[in-house]
Automatic annotation (TrEMBL):
Pfam families: Calx-beta (PF03160), CBM_11 (PF03425), Glyco_hydro_3 (PF00933), Glyco_hydro_3_C (PF01915). It comes from Streptomyces gilvifuscus. InterPro entries: CalX-like_sf (IPR038081), Calx_beta (IPR003644), CBM11 (IPR005087), Cellulose_Degrad_GH3 (IPR051915), Galactose-bd-like_sf (IPR008979), GH (IPR017853), Glyco_hydro_3_AS (IPR019800), Glyco_hydro_3_C (IPR002772). Belongs to the glycosyl hydrolase 3 family. The lineage of its organism: Bacteria, Bacillati, Actinomycetota, Actinomycetes, Kitasatosporales. This is beta-glucosidase.
Length: 1004
């Protein structure tokens, strides 16, 4: 039956069965969307159907059609149960193979809901325009379940707002057209073990012009200097840009409810503007508000402009004019930062101070009114939280709009906006994506690390973001950790050497460069010991190691996990983020304590002993993991030394609770002033008071050839050649090369987690070059992903295998992940390497267990997660650059060995820490005598402070040992070899060569 006929017949039936409701005489008959009698199946695109979704595997609700004698319509209703930790709900999409539905004749949509009186808001979303229900524009509103039993919920289409936190297609025209509708969706409450019942979704009422016409103000906030005149532009727009069918009037008046005084601070205005019938869509009228000048220094003052609209939808909020603060010491850029901070702090109310200590997610504040209402000090974009479209210009426009809201506050304290740009501006499509930190650690190139930081800072700041939640200074001690790739390596000395990235991000250590348009505030994370968590100790869901417990002696803590933070503080890092994990210092009697509660470490060690003068930002909702009730969470973290709380969606509760705790005396005013002073200091250093808005001068450099060249070099230097029998690498241009494997032609796998979205994704989601595409530029290449194409007639095979993207504890081994290659990858390796000489590249965030196939592989490369520039990988494969990378972590033989690290008493790896063969470089000749001579020369260089010469001497000795050892890496060889790399990083070059001599002697 054609859908139109089906709807018509259902409408007749519904008219007979539906309970009588009030209906105007000229209203069209209700049109059913869902009766839940079985006419719509449980199915998904492209077919019509109802389907569920959620953030975690257990978050989608369980749905069924249930016979209910109390059903408002028909015999059945839709019922469901849910217990959602992240997000979840259900959708009804219309068939993508048929035209979208026209809802424009109706006033709104309504349905029956069986109330549970849980007080929770339920989001209701409709899908407008686009290709289908999953590629449409989303418009949302909500209703509150604060009743019991069946109630008909009526939602006029005028109540729906354009969804700002997520749009599947980046937005189409930002107009609710209603002529091509694709269904609806409900997002169910979080934190409730709940059930629901729903029935009879239908369209009701008659549309009026306010559905097709709207009046908007050019901005919610209009800044003006004292004595100036503000111009508010009001625009009428219609669906489809049709001329107005009826007149629209806007009555306006300046309201005396603001903080500015009529007649003293401004001249009151009132009147009526008319858009006559026939007015073109896009027509504009203006209202001018003149302010008056006096001679006193003042904070900002507000003048609300009240609008009453007839014949169209009114703006979501009334605009307001803000007279800028002026004449106050904290606004004087010539004064020292310390004095400016003291002056500003003295003027702040408790609520304003609490706001500065609060960071919310951009998706939680909508258009940003709460930035003003709660005096928020900071916003962030979590992983994948992006504007639509996801372009540099849209980022700058979005952040500027939030900064404008901050300018509507009394003191006009700018926001500091933060993102997780952990390997480039990884939330931004088209940005330059660097290798993840584990690859940067493999380069052993501090100058290059600094350059990658500089590129990242330039691209981040050009989009209006002045704060980066990077670098991660974790010392990763167990490859089962899902965050292992966020670490520069397992040796604190290696991590310290790579902290030049802080200067790349921030500039000089005294903070003088922070106000530059190409620098950002950096964050050392996660303080402290997150890389040392014990397998099986995680306290979070199905995670196995992430957010677990680090058990160490105080000596081990200082030597391994705290060491990088001493360096970071010396380098002037502006912020520090505590870890989700717990710290158990053996012998201190406290047992495991969450890091956000460890005042001894944050106040005592970081701020006290180390002298850190920046501010401490919590991790995402981390205080919720502390023991006790919510007030205990707040006071514990604040008193422990956390200065700003990342409370993405609970910022209202946090600010109210913090103020309660201060009033009750459980958090001191002195502690609050310390936290706020630290935050304000960094805002002044960033130059945000003088330049709160995005400086997009460097936007043209985002993803530029120059920036990608840095990423390409980093990708090349990160490649670690573990084995190279028969000189298979480098490849020659005249060779016929057979390429296979799951990661040869997958940009998403190559970039890994924290790319565009939090978890990352396979496939193409940004701009870049895959390894395969890069190889095709250099040689004669044939590609067969699964190696199903014939393998005869080739000179060499290259099989690119490894992991698919993940982030954090989601990637923990034992949480759906392991260190084995997939069955398909193993099959590809086996087939290609049996047919020809082969090189295997492992694209992964950590070592993979390859020992059972190592004998059949001629060349093995640890490619890590090289980022968007696959050309860098091809550069070393084809000999444009030599292989120079060295293992930043120990490569294990088996999972049973884990954790295994340099310095262990028992050490029998597949490849030791620091291992890395080279190409294009002649290996020095010689034996024990040569090594003794190199050791003596290295000792001389060490005493002279000649680091470059000392490292070069160690490198020669390392190449001699690797040449002799080949693949005969016994424990007697591996341990002194790894020790030597650590010694070299700490400047003990003579001792390093002596250990290499020990390794040389141990080779059979």
């Amino acid at each position: 039956m054609p859908r139109t006929a089906l709807l018509a017949s259902v409408a007749v039936l519904a008219a007979l069965l539906t309970p009588t409701v009030s209906q105007a005489a000229d209203d069209p008959a209700p049109v059913p969307v869902d009766r839940f009698e079985g006419e719509v199946p449980f199915a998904s695109q492209p077919a019509e159907g109802i389907f569920t979704w959620g953030g975690d595997s257990d978050d989608p609700p369980a749905l069924r059609l249930t016979d209910r004698p109390d059903a408002p319509e028909g015999a059945k209703v839709l019922t469901g149960t849910y217990d959602i930790s992240g997000y979840g709900g259900f959708t009804h999409d219309f068939a993508a193979t048929e035209p979208g539905h026209d809802w424009s004749a109706h006033k709104g949509i309504r349905f029956w809901w069986d109330g549970q009186d849980n007080g929770k808001k339920i989001a209701f979303e409709i899908k407008d325009g686009g290709a289908n229900g999953e590629a449409s524009e989303l418009w949302t509103t909500s209703f509150t379940d604060d009743f019991t039993g069946w109630k008909q919920i009526e939602i006029p289409f005028t109540d729906f707002q354009y969804r700002t936190d997520y749009q599947p297609v980046g937005g189409i025209d930002h107009v609710l057209g209603l002529t091509s509708m694709w269904g609806y969706a409900l997002t169910l409450p979080v934190g409730v073990d709940g059930r629901f019942a729903m029935d009879d979704v239908e369209l009701y009422g008659k549309a009026d012009q306010s559905l097709r016409a709207s009046v908007t103000a050019d901005s919610a906030v209009h800044l003006v200097r004292e004595g100036g005149t503000a111009t508010v532009r009001l625009t009428v727009a219609t669906t489809g840009s049709a001329p107005l069918a009826e007149p629209v009037t806007v009555t306006y008046e300046t309201a005396a409810t603001g903080t500015a005084e009529p007649g003293k601070d401004y001249t009151p205005v009132s009147g009526t503007l008319t858009f006559p019938a026939g007015t073109a869509s896009g027509a504009t009228r203006t209202v001018k508000v003149a302010t008056l000048r006096d001679k006193s220094a003042e904070t900002a003052e507000t003048i609300p402009l009240k609008l009453t609209v007839t014949g169209a939808k009114a703006p979501a909020e009334n605009p307001q004019v803000v007279i800028d603060a002026h004449g106050l010491p904290y606004l004087d850029a010539k004064l020292p930062v310390k004095r400016r901070v003291a002056d500003l702090l003295s003027r702040m109310s408790p609520a304003e101070k609490a706001g500065q200590m609060t960071q919310a997610e951009r998706g939680a504040v909508g258009e940003g009114a709460d930035v003003t209402g709660y005096d928020l000090g900071s916003l962030l974009s979590g992983g994948g939280s992006t504007p639509t479209p996801n372009t540099p210009g849209a980022w700058a426009k979005m952040i500027d709009s939030f900064q404008l809201r901050a300018q509507a506050t009394r003191l006009q304290i700018p926001l500091v906006y933060g993102v997780d740009a952990v390997h480039g501006h990884n939330n931004l499509a088209g940005a330059t994506i660097m290798p993840h930190n584990i690859g940067i650690g493999a380069t052993r190139d501090p100058q290059l690390a600094e350059r990658t930081g500089a590129v990242t800072a330039s691209e981040v700041r050009a989009t209006g973001v002045p704060w980066d939640f990077a670098p991660c200074l974790c010392v990763s001690r167990d490859e089962r950790w899902g965050r292992a790739y966020e670490s520069f390596g397992e040796d604190p000395a290696l991590v310290e050497s790579m902290e030049t990235i802080i200067q790349g991000l921030q500039g000089r250590s005294d903070g003088r460069d922070l106000s530059r348009a190409d620098k950002v505030l950096a964050t050392a994370k996660h303080f402290v010991g997150d890389g040392g968590t014990e397998y099986g100790s995680s306290t979070t869901g199905t995670y196995t190691i992430d957010q677990g417990v680090t058990k160490v002696t105080r000596q081990q803590l200082d030597a391994v996990h705290l060491a990088p933070y001493r360096t970071a503080v010396d380098r002037g890092v502006g912020t520090v983020m505590p870890s989700y994990s717990s710290l158990d210092i053996l012998g201190d009697g406290q047992g495991p304590v969450k890091m956000h509660a460890r005042a001894d470490m944050i106040n005592g060690v970081l701020k006290g002993r180390m002298g850190f003068d920046g501010f401490v930002i919590s991790d995402w909702n981390a205080i919720d993991q502390l023991p006790g009730d919510y007030p205990a969470h707040v006071r514990t973290a604040v008193n422990a030394g956390v200065d700003m709380m990342m409370v993405p969606y609970s910022y209202k509760d946090f600010t109210a609770t913090l103020l309660d705790e201060v009033r009750a005396g459980r958090v001191s005013g002195k502690r609050i002033d310390d936290a706020v002073s630290r935050i304000l200091t960094q805002k002044f250093r960033l130059g945000l008071f003088e330049h709160p808005y995005a400086d997009t001068a460097n936007a043209s450099r985002i993803g530029s050839a120059a920036h990608r060249a840095v990423a390409r070099q980093a990708a090349a230097e990160s490649q670690v050649l573990l084995k190279n029998a028969h000189g298979v690498l480098p490849l020659r241009k005249n060779q016929k090369v057979y390429v296979a494997g799951s990661n040869a032609d997958d940009l998403g796998n190559q970039t890994g987690g924290w790319t565009i979205t939090w978890q990352g994704a396979s496939g193409t989601h940004t701009q870049g070059t895959t390894i395969l595409d890069a190889m095709r530029k250099d040689g004669d290449v044939t590609y067969s992903k699964d190696a199903s194409a014939p393998t005869s007639g080739y000179d060499v095979g290259v099989v690119v295998v490894g992991e698919t993207p993940y982030a954090e504890g989601v990637g923990d081994v034992g949480n759906g992940h392991d260190l084995q290659l997939s069955a398909a990858d193993k099959a590809a390796v086996d087939k290609v390497c049996a047919a020809m000489r082969c090189a295997v590249l492992i694209v992964s965030g950590r070592p993979q267990l390859i020992g059972d196939r190592l004998g059949g592989i001629d060349a093995l490369v640890a490619s890590w997660l090289p980022g968007t520039e696959g050309d860098g990988v091809a550069d070393v494969l084809y000999g444009k650059r030599p292989f120079t990378g060295r293992l930043p972590v120990t490569w294990p033989r088996s999972e049973a060995q884990l954790p295994i690290n340099v310095g262990d008493a028992s050490y029998d790896p597949q490849f030791p820490y620091g291992w890395g063969l080279t190409t294009l470089t002649k290996v020095p000749q010689g034996g024990a005598g040569t090594l003794r001579a190199l050791a003596a020369a290295a000792a001389v260089a060490e005493r002279a402070g000649a680091d470059q010469a000392g490292r070069a001497l160690v490198a020669k000795a390392r190449l001699i040992v690797q040449q002799k050892a080949g693949q005969n890496i016994t424990p007697a060889v591996a341990k002194p070899f790894a020790d030597a790399d650590h010694l070299s990083l700490t400047g003990r070059y003579g001792a390093a060569v002596q250990r290499l001599e020990t390794a040389w002697k141990a080779v059979d």
